[in-house]
Amino acid sequence: MDKFVVYKSSLQGEVEISGSKNACLPIMAATLLTDEECKIFGVPDLTDVRTMIKILEILGKKIVFEDGVLVIKTKNTKSCVAPYRLVRTMRASFCCLGPLLAKRGRAKVSLPGGCVIGPRPVDLHIKGLRELGANIRIDKGYCIGETKGLRGKRIFLGGNFGSSVLATANVLMAASLAEGETVIECAACEPEIEDLVRFLKKMGADIQGEGTPIIRVRGVKCLQGGEIKSIPDRIEAGTFIAAGLATNSSIKLRNVQPLHLTSVIEKVREIGGEVEVDNSQISLHSRGYISPTEITTFPYPGFPTDLQSQFMSVLSIGKGISLITEKVYPDRFMHVSELNRMGAHIKRQGPYAIVEGVERIYGAEVMASDLRASAGLVIAGLVAEGKTEVHRVYHLDRGYERLEEKLKKLGAKIKREKQ
Ligand code: EPZ
Predict the structure, then answer these.
(1) Most ligand 1 atoms within 8 A of CB, residue of 124, 193, 328 to mutate
(2) Which atom of ligand 1 is nearest to the CA of 90?
């Protein structure tokens, strides 16, 4: 197991953002909707991507992954089981359920199980697929479904915390081969859903309204193979922006889609950064101080929950009192105690965290608990006095491609070490 050793650093120069993990994973699952060859370009080399490859291979796909290009062919269509040993390591594999039901008429997908960021039920996924006519039962930790043919329907997919990204993906993929029209209400509007629909349309699907809360899908008899280049990873981009802000640096991000970061850019300008946007580049110039603010996470286009911990690290060394409200995962605060171990002053009360900015924080040994919390701890390490050791960086490798190399190229004092 590896750890990161991080020292106080200032950053400068340019960083290339990778393709989006959260766009590529559902797109990979969508290849189950056809037996023809599919190609996905700009795929980041992450453990989550490699897990999805393993699952698709178990489901009869033959996959070559080189230099960010996935070539996916179909060897056989017999198997319909996505095993617990893989699904438990990566929830996104649950969105193989819809495509398997729609294309093969049966599926046995393990329930994802617990997650440190809080309860993550899949009731909306199951509700939506049942409304399309699938018989679904839960047995020994598996979601077992079958259908003689799905049928389009009007489905309300809103939950207690609003829309669901992967439930929207699961249902719209299944609906693309269902008979008749499906209307998904309270659909997720995330750019990753738009990218999935872009791919499905290349496969021959008939879909409208992606990027809005109402998506209309007219089912087709079959889908052909398709090719797509993944959108850039907006969460990776937001992570580098937070690192630049926290370290009072000026950096440039290349291969970004600025429109996907509107709520984040607005917050950065409020906190203390000049942001220039130019086509697929963002330049950040820090103003040398960090003003207090209020951040409330929401489904897209609101402020992303996947950047909450990174911006908490920024505000922990800011001026004054900031308030963070976590509306998507109310328990997503595993990083608070670790930041307080570094000398931050953060009080958590239910879905709220009150961040009292301090002059400085100090290096310490800290434990990564999940993907984004660990990114927040790395950022804290870049501003802390002395040495910070971030343990269990396998969490980071799930969602950041060569993070320490990219940071090092920007001048960060960071290295990966065996524990
Ligand atoms: C996606 O997860 C992302 N994962 C998550 O990113 C991200 O945090 C999340 O969307 C929210 O933006 C991928 O795209 C692979 P949700 P997803 O269903 O789709 C509740 C990262 O760091 N809910 O939109 O699983 C749920 O508990 C990861 O890259 C139900 O109640 O999230 C949550 O409170 C972490 N019932 C809210 O909805 C359901 O059936 C939003 O979750 C489904 C969800």
Answers:
(1) 328
(2) 15
Neighbours of 212 (CB within 10 A): 12
- Concerning whether 24 is annotated as a catalytic residue, the answer is no
Question: pTM here?
Answer: 0.98
For 182, phi then psi, to 5°, come to -115, 135
Residue of 142, 30, 137, 129 lying closest to 88 (CA atoms): 142
Residue 194 and residue 210 in contact, taking contact as beta carbons nearer than 8 Å: yes
Go through the chain and tell me how many residues it has.
Answer: 419
pLDDT digits (tens, 9 = 90+) for 355-400: 999 999 999 999 999 999 999 999 999 999 999 999 999 999 999 9
CA dist 4 and 402 (Å) reads 12
Which pLDDT tens digit goes with each residue over 309-318?
999 999 999 9
Which residue in this structure is represented by tokens 């359920």? 97
- Ligand 1 centroid distance, CA of 303 (Å): 14
CA pair distance 257, 324, nearest whole angstrom:
25
pLDDT digits (tens, 9 = 90+) for 323-350: 999 999 999 999 999 999 999 999 999 9
How many Cα neighbours within 13 Å face the side chain of 258?
16
